[in-house]
């Protein structure tokens, strides 16, 4: 499915085609594995904000939630790995992937778990600064795109591989900016969906006074859940875009893009 030279536009165009091929059932599987993590993440953050300075006195309660968050995170990483593999298979064959998407390489999966854990910790550690978020997003994306290239588990090797593809920082940064806008649009759509649902329920005669109070931006939990919903909405496209970025960068490196272009000309 490599049809054009590496650029932000070509990556996004071909990623859209890949998402269309992997929507059923692989995007659905991605969403199902992502939901528990995002829900528990919101619960944990909401509890921290509620407790504030008193959080240190509720270590046991927070630890129990954190343990569930870690389990859900591992499940989410596995779902992302399956979907990223499905995207790569779809980009290679131009058809909907079958059960081969589930045949994950254990070394690659373990390496992906390492890079995902490190970037997640860095995100939480630097979130308050906001400055490091775009950089972490670029590294996260390249970690998803390159994870299948790891043939041995390790801590340093996966980051070396990410650094190797980091030469495409211009395109990777542009993709992050595009998805930042997409995230804002998704946030508005998710919030709007709740508002329309409450309005339709009220029009049908249901008592929605309490629901109207809950589904407002004055409710912190609603805002957090809406952010989580927006992240889940854009996740399939984000993963597909980064897989295509690495695929196209690798094709340019090996000359496969020129061979694909020549085959397309010959078939035409």
Write the layout of secondary structure elements.
Blueprint: H1 8-51, H2 59-93, H3 106-126, H4 133-146, H5 157-165, H6 169-203, H7 209-214, H8 220-254, H9 256-267
Account of the protein in words:
The protein is mainly α and 268 residues long. The protein has one domain (8-267). Helices cover 79% and strands 0% of the residues. The protein has 9 helices and no strands. The chain has helices at 8-51, 59-93, 106-126, 133-146, 157-165, 169-203, 209-214, 220-254, 256-267. Helix 4 crosses helix 8 (220-254). It is globular.
Shape: globular
Major sheet size, sense and barrel closure: none
Say how many strands there are. Answer: 0
Alpha-carbon Rg, integer = 20 Å
Strand portion, in percent?
Answer: under 5%
What is the number of helices?
9
Please trace the helix and strand order, writing H or E for each element.
HHHHHHHHH
The end-to-end span amounts to: 15 Å
* SS-derived structural category: mainly alpha
Uncertain residue ranges: 254-258, 260-265
Q: Averaged pLDDT, please?
A: 86
Q: List the domain count as a whole number.
A: 1
Estimate the helix proportion, in percent: over 70%
Key features?
268 residues; mainly alpha; 9 helices; 0% strand
Concise overview:
79% of the residues lie in helices and 0% in strands. It has 268 residues and is mostly helical.
